[in-house]
Amino acid sequence: MDDKTSMNILGIIAEYNPFHNGHQYHLQKSKDITQVDGTICVMSGNFLQRGEPSLLDKWERTKMALAGGIDLVIELPIPYALRSAEFFAYGGITLLDATKVVNYISFGSESGELEKLNTISKILAKEPEELKQFLRFYLDQGLSFPSARTQALIDHIQQKNGEIKLNSHEIESLTSNPNNILALEYLKAIHRLSSDLIPVTIPRIAASFHDTSIQGKIASATAIRENLLKKVKNNEPITEQIMSTIPQSSQIILTSALSQKNGPVSIEDFAPQILTLLRRAKVESLANLFDVRGGLENRIKEASKEATSIQELIRLIKTKRYTWTRIQRIIFHYLINLTSVECEYFDQLGGPQYIRVLGFNKRGQKILAHMKEKANLPIITRIANHLHRPHTPEPINRMLEFEILATDLYSLAIPNPKYRHSNRDLLERVVIVK
User: Fold this and answer.
1) Regarding predicted confidence, which is higher, 62 or 167?
2) What pTM, to 2 d.p., does this model score?
3) Is the dihedral of CA 357, 363, 369, 371 positive or negative?
4) Which run of H or of E encompasses 200?
5) In 3D, which of 402, 390, 322 has the Cα closest to residue 46?
């Protein structure tokens, strides 16, 4: 590590909500394959890609990541953390590429077939006109975007008369499973950015992404969260079965956070705020949100009058075309006032505008020093040194303002009032593990 020119760094994009045994397996397997000198994780902040708040805040999850073997944690800004897979992946890859020190990017997938995933990702990156026509056709038929894209790809590839060696079953499998979908988007972003990042994929083992039951020591993050939240809600102790799914290092951090009532936070904790805002909203303001089209704003408004919980609200809005997660993202966009105009503003500028450091260990500190010499985005370790300063460009100010607001609103849902004050992004220090 002393010879900076020979650093070999692995990049991972994750939410670690929470950091569990499956994440530990993925990280260790990735290190074994790449034989790197260190690791950087781009991690979502307090709101996540599926349109949910994180179980614990980003500082607690940073501690888990560092304890689990990550060396340096940087934050995926909220305009990309709380977006569809395409923008989530684009934001993460943009940040890893911008460090100019990362060699590899490793991600999980259901298939583990990098060559086939790469074949499809190249088509998606080029977006041939024929594919776009098929996609428009299926969207007009009322299919959700993921389903419409799968069908469009099948039609497009079949018209190539065997030029691309993928059958319809393979295409459906490669484009329908959650980790495969993200893998495709990571690869697509690498192609679009002409990045030198070398992709590595690790097949997902044991529990599937959506499993809600815990069977053994490898469970989905969904199952861990749901079971843990149920225990806390019923004021029952967290069982050994739940705890056995996360590494001991994560158990210590989780237990400490829960004992201080610094979490857990669930989506229903935001029901009063979101329903209040939606009931007082003008339909026109809902129409200005990213991903709202085809009269969806009217469904949202009408549902808000009847719903008494977030689950009920989404159930009333949901249609075949509008998926559950898409609606979740939309209502949290409204909570933080992330409109189409703001999303498009950042997208036109090329994505994340800075590299914000959340935490590091000794090895991570050396990587960070290397990044400061090479990165092509400004590195932020203390927001107060950048926000509304004369030297700070307006796009950075605007992105930071969203991050601060998102944390301020998230903090209101933390059980302990001690953590509910505003400006935590300005006050909390970088997590340093010595």
Assistant:
1) 62
2) 0.95
3) negative
4) strand 198-203
5) 402
